[in-house]
Amino acid sequence: MKSISEPQTHTLRYGDHTHTYTITEQDRKTIRLTVYPDLSIKLFSPLGYPHEKIEKFIKRKDAWIRKQLRELKRLQRSRKPKEYISGESHLYLGRQYRLLVVENSDPMAVGNVRFENGRIVITTDPHLSNQELLEAWYCERAAELFPKRYKAMLPKFNCEPPQLVIRTMKTRWGSYTSKKRVILNTELIKAAKECIDYVIIHELCHIKHQNHSKEYYRHLSSKCPNWKQLKEKLEMRFAGI
Question: Quick one: 69 and 169 in the same domain?
Answer without folding.
Answer: no
